[in-house]
Hints:
By secondary structure, the chain is an alpha+beta fold. It has helices at residues 4-16, 33-48, 70-81, 98-113, 126-138, 143-146, 169-178, 195-210, 214-243, 259-263, 267-278, 291-298, 385-391, 396-399, 437-440; strands spanning 24-28, 53-60, 85-89, 118-121, 152-155, 158-161, 256-258, 306-309, 312-317, 320-324, 345-346, 352-357, 365-367, 374-377, 381-384, 404-407, 410-413, 428-433. Keywords: ATP-binding, Cytoplasm, Ligase, Nucleotide-binding, tRNA processing.
Amino acid sequence: MDSxxxxxxxxxxxxxxxxxxxxxxHLAFSGGLDSTVLLHLLAxxxxxxxxxxxxxxxxxxxxQAAADAWPEHCRSVCDALGVPLQVVRVQVQPGASLERAARxxxxxxxxxxxxxxxxxxxxxxxxxQAETLLFRLLRGAGVKGLSGMPRQRPLGSGYLIRPLLDxxxxxxxxxxxxxHLSWIEDPSNQDxxxxxxxxxxxxxxxxxxRWPQAMATMARSAAHLSEAQTLLDDLAKIDLNQxxxxxxxEWLGLPSLELAALAKLSAARQRNxxxxxxxxRTRLPDSDxxxxxxxxxxxxGDARPIWRLADGELHRAGGRIWWLSxxxxxxxxxxxxxxxxxxxxxxxDNGVLTLSGQIPDGPLQIRYREGGExxxxxxxxxxxxxxxxxxxxxxxxxxxxxxxxxKGEQLLAVPNLQGLDGGxxxxxxxxxxxxxxxxxxx
Length: 442
């Protein structure tokens, strides 16, 4: 490993070249071997190179007694290198997987720390990438999962970068030995009950004894699969562009797609496009649990199918599929009087109402549909509200959330629907701004 004496810093610098204009580099610093080497490399490169401001962030999970001493160790290392350190204590939520819960808490802290035009650097290396590939293969992952850890991805308002994915654990150990670095040995890394530790200590030594290049070739396979995933993403964008036709209800602010454009694709392309569209919004089902999509797609025209996913629901209405989450799925509070119709009225978990023009005489009230509402329309007489909504093709999931303007028992207006949304003479209008997508995301 003699080449690491001069090679490692230059390789790291080349990898990070595209990010040298960032406003700040944060380093995820556990105090272990990998992040200690990365911190040392960056701190010394900063002495001879023009690099962004560098700081470290240590996340304390509070899961084991030994960890209480780690922040102080990390502080002493950072002080010696002249790198500011932020220690963040997080609460790990109980759940089936302690590993996942700790990761979620850790990355929550990273997201909060990483602002616009900033990057978070983490120290996963080539051996980690190989372990990730095998771990996900054993869990039945698809192409995306088998792509391994990406070199870069969005994180909060900035980006996460993994600059050591071409570096082996042996190279990091050699660098640490050469520079007499000290680091934390996490006792949990020896616990074979954790799947990754089992692979690292029980499986990979056997593989490497038979195939010495196993780590390298598996990491290379992950790179090939990452390229394949890029092509699948490109195909998904092409297919989604065909399905992103405008709807008659753009004012809802909800993500939606034209069902016919998706239905004409092969089953595999449907799943690929939908996965790409849903991924920023929810955790996706595994390949055995896509029957909900088939039911939604194939339902008869008068059906009201719903596909319930981890973080929201897909509804079908008006020849489209609609994504609902957050406030859109919460029960509505009882509406009531509009104290001052000249001012906007905030509706709990249901957006904002405004009246424009000549405000009608009061007192005015807001109610939600109960069934049987009648509206008096000029030239048409009394009309059933349900029929009026049917005529306009209002999606079923919207109807119960439409705020209705009443004066006593008289239904005066239904917002946003032309001909139903204001005075006879057009001298006033009722407008509803529903929850936008950001508010709707859980």
